[in-house]
Design a protein that fits this description.
Structural class: mainly beta
Order of helices and strands: EEEEEEEEEEEEEEEHEHHEE
Number of strands: 18
Helix content: 10-25%
Largest sheet: 5 strands, antiparallel
CATH class of the largest domain: Mainly Beta
Radius of gyration: 26 Å
CATH superfamily of the largest domain: Nucleic acid-binding proteins
CATH architecture of the largest domain: Beta Barrel
Distance between the termini: 83 Å
CATH topology of the largest domain: OB fold (Dihydrolipoamide Acetyltransferase, E2P)
């Protein structure tokens, strides 16, 4: 076992030497340092120690007994600690922050953002993070149509919609037609409804409820927007679909259903150019 090939993994290694500044783990031919501050009490040569292998700030292979927030082959949501000239730096629970190179970002990130990433070893044999996780997501979720799920947005596409990792591990998409308003951004947490389970196991989602349930929420949204604009909307249910989508984040059909509900309840009236509260 070459130790460099175990980079990014947790491994059980044997103590082969003790020194003033720590202990060496591995074999007589190849070994790695576990710094003194992390050495378990009453450790002896020949004892096994479970450690995680990574590289320190001097690019040397080093062992730690600390538990990283992500290991090779896993996905995890990590927080951006800072950004720099070569990318962003993520908090992964170890002294040296994890680099997220610019080329591995699916959207620009800033300090404090939370992003779903995978861990990989780059060409220089360093551990880095990538937001390009599409190929790493699972397609055998336990969910079925109309189930409610939670996930995180990891990528956006003008052609397809919003890509979501359900439970941070299952492949899902909010199709463009369901991503009303375009307000979802990479890193956003979403609550959604499964509208389809594809043959390959991937999920199609909607952030909206079924029409008869969603109608109440849409009607409330319209009333709230009218209150913010002096008691009226400056357009009617005959408005251009794009205008409705931009103003309210609703499809034209959803808007018409909600307005119809408000009309039926005598909560609004429609004039030639606007929707208004009834004059009292």
């Amino acid at each position: 076992m070459k130790l460099i090939e175990e980079l990014g993994k947790r491994r059980m290694l044997t103590v082969v030497k003790t020194v003033d500044f720590g202990i060496y783990l591995g074999t007589s031919e190849e070994r790695v340092l576990l710094p003194k501050k992390e050495v378990p009490k009453e450790i002896e040569i020949g004892d096994p120690v479970e450690v995680f292998l990574y590289k320190d700030s001097s690019d040397r292979l080093i062992a730690t007994t600390a538990e990283p927030k992500i290991t090779l082959g896993e996905l995890a949501v990590l927080t951006v600690k800072d950004t720099g000239k070569i990318g962003a730096f993520l908090d992964w629970g170890l002294p040296k922050d994890l680099l997220l190179p610019f080329k591995e970002q699916t959207a620009k990130v800033k300090k404090g953002d939370q992003v779903l990433v995978a861990l990989y070893v780059d060409k220089s044999e360093r551990l880095c993070a990538t937001m390009k996780v599409y190929e790493k997501l699972e397609t055998d979720s336990p969910y079925k149509k109309d189930d409610h799920v939670e996930g995180i947005v990891y990528e956006r596409s003008d052609n397809f919609g919003v890509f979501v990792a359900v439970d941070n591990k299952y492949s899902a998409l909010i199709p463009k037609r369901e991503a009303y308003g375009g307000h979802l951004q990479v890193g956003d947490k979403v609550h959604a409804r499964v509208i389809k389970v594809r043959e390959d196991g991937k999920l199609d989602l909607s952030v909206r409820e079924k029409a008869f349930i969603q109608m109440d929420a849409d009607a409330e949204l319209i009333v709230k927007r009218m209150e913010e604009h002096g008691g009226k909307l400056p357009f009617t249910d005959k408005a251009d679909p794009e205008k409705i989508k931009n103003e309210l984040g609703l499809s034209k059909n959803a808007f018409k259903r909600a307005v119809g509900r408000l009309l039926k309840e005598n909560k609004v009236i429609i004039t030639e150019k606007s929707i208004e509260f009834p004059h009292r």
